Amino acid sequence: MKDHRITSLRRALEGLVESLDATARLSRWRDTEDAPQPLRESAAKLGERLGVANQLAAGKIAGGSSAVPLLTGMSSAIQRLDAAYVQYRDRIDANPDAVDEAAVALDAEIGTVKSEAEQWA
């Protein structure tokens, strides 16, 4: 039987990655047309998704030997993404002209997590 914690944490992580990616993309949006509605909607869900993901990642990890490494890895990824988002916001708040640099740094952490996510599938 699958551990429901793995499924819940994976969904939370995937939603967080989607919203962070949308946020980074929107911060660099320079097109004359409005950004696509799904992109804006995903970015708008960032606060909620970040809160849920952090809450799940903060839970105590115990259980079967196969579940613990998956839960630990995904929890660590959520914490790293949270830290990367805080740095992104801090950079933009300190210097609004640094939005591109901040987005590149956030994208780098998102890319790292996406590459690691294959092992949690």
Which assembly state applies to the chains in this document?
Answer: single chain
Task: Supply the number of helical segments.
Answer: 5
Poorly predicted regions are: none
Into which percent range does the helicity of residues fall?
over 70%
Largest sheet: none
Would you tell me the structural class of the helices and strands? mainly alpha
SSE order, one letter for each helix or strand: HHHHH
- Total individual domains: 1
Radius of gyration: 15 Å
Number of strands: 0
Shape: elongated
Distance, first to last CA: 16 Å
> Into which percentage range does the β-strand content fall?
under 5%
Rounded mean pLDDT is 91
Key words describing this protein structure:
mainly alpha; 121 residues; 5 helices
SSE blueprint and pairings:
Elements: H1 4-27, H2 37-44, H3 46-57, H4 67-94, H5 99-117
